[in-house]
Amino acid sequence: MIRTPIAGLRGHVGETVTIAGWAQALRLQRAMQFIIVRDHTGTAKVTHRRDGGALEAALDGLTTESAIRVTGRVKANPVVSLGGLELLPDELVVESAAQAPLPVDSRTGPEGRLDWRFLDVRRRPAARLVFEVQTTAERAMREFAYAEGCTEMHTPKLMGTASESGAEVFEVGYFGRTAYLAQSPQFYKQMAIAAGVDRVFEVGPVFRAEPSFTSRHATEFTGVDVELAWIASVEDVMSFE
Hints:
Blueprint: E1 16-28, E2 32-39, E3 42-49, H1 54-60, E4 67-76, E5 85-96, H2 110-115, H3 117-123, H4 125-147, E6 151-152, E7 158-159, E8 171-174, E9 177-181, H5 186-194, E10 199-207, E11 220-228, H6 234-240
Parallel strand pairs: 6-10
Antiparallel strand pairs: 1-2, 1-4, 2-3, 4-5, 7-9, 8-9, 10-11
């Protein structure tokens, strides 16, 4: 059965669907079993009355953050705080069981969170918002560039020579030769302008081997580069920016 995003369950009340995600929380009571399942769109409550069957045993064996698929009927229940919906399961598939206890919890410090970055991002919505902000900003810049008649480029990041002077470069081995990580797409942008592509831009990685003694580092970052042809003065570039 095709997976239904949790955020779309409202449109499937009374139907049998399959959701896939992680077991965020378990409440295994004497008569009832409750599982909170989370995917990238939201959370849903899975409710099962104990009946001594295989499904009961499978739910009892779950661990927090296990990757699971649950097939069942969507039921409207105004008592449920998660959107007034619950899923009455018919089948549970454990795609990947998580070890218990988890290596991170609410008391884990920054170093521990970085060691288990995927778990931290998965379990903390605030951590995931960083990527949402990046996506929104990048999409907005792309849409503006397209509207201004720009063509997007994807330039090489391994180069035979340094792309800019005055900046340190990372040297890497390249089939018995030396290559350099690109400090900028400047060379390729200028070639595109000479080739008649009047306005070009790129959103991509930039590498600079510059040591830093602060908390801010420029060794690897995402650059937004633009090149405009046929300008009258620097005012044209400033206006675009």
